Amino acid sequence: MVLLIxxxxxxxxxxxxxxxxxxTRKTELFGVSIPSAEANRPECNExxxxxxxxxxxxxxxxxAFTVIPYLLMGPENxxxxxxxxxxxxxxLFLGFGIYLLGHKDAQKLKQNAKWANPVENAALIxxxxxxxxxxxxxxxxxxxxxxxxxxxxxxxLVWNQAPEMIPMHYDSLGNVTRYAxxxxxxxxxxxxxxxxxxxVFTGVFFITKNAKRxxxxxxxELSREQGRRFRRFTSTSLxxxxxxxxxxxxxxxxxxxxxxxxxxVMWLSLGSMLPILLVIPILYLRMGQGGSRLKxxxxxxxxxxxxxxxxxxxxxxxxxxxxxxPAIFIEKRFGIGYTNNWAHPLSWLLIVxxxxxxxxxxxxxxxxx
Length: 369
Hints:
Helix content is 59%, strand content 8%. It is mostly helical.
């Protein structure tokens, strides 16, 4: 079972890294903006395919170095766990290096094709009016604190039935590796984790709501509709995923107090997370960044207008820095989701705040031991 989980996680990471160019907007080639009319040129497709092939080649040793230590040392060996973590970071680092190769080639292609030259029909469309039905109602976010309160009520109800020593940690095989005296202090790590998840999922929801809308000047109505459907799906998936994770932590605490078997905990983990990890990535692959892969037969008003070239504000094609842009969050140029405007002071405050929260949860976990 553990080996299957390791392979499953590996494949998720490989899939997310390898097929990123195919879900990114076609008008953004490895962080470089290109005209809509040139997005499907053979040269552009060749760069995407070259990145895919390099990532697949890199994935072979990645799989080997994550699976072999487990087979040789066993799942309980600390060294194998450390190796697994280090290998994932190395894979991500090398993957970024492969991306940079594509970014450099895309810059050369754009320069040689003279796509960077200013044109008279270039345009920047700004859409500040929220579209009706763009997101699920923010009122649904109240589900998160309600689950937390129900968790506290559930803990209170089973407190007297719980043994004096409760399980605190399970290994990868589901065996209990550490017990602790029954106390509120012992439950603080998971309770604080729930609070952190509530803050993170609520924050990402409002990032989705307030992020800058990216409109394609060549077909503004279609891109506006694609963005609306993308945000609707993103807000819905955040609500479902956040509810599942926060509920999982709540139920897990109650089960631990009741001394649930390791198999129960393992199946609960798989049952609550696997459907989300399987379905949501597939749907995002179908939609593409900002809904760019979605089609609409009812909307087709394409023209020859080109998008404003903002490459100078994107460092390495992934870091957005524009002091003149009031937006805090903007769509990524490589991948799905949003990134921050590093030139905006509030962006730094939010990042520091998140780091403080993460460190706080870690400190609480250490003190609870």
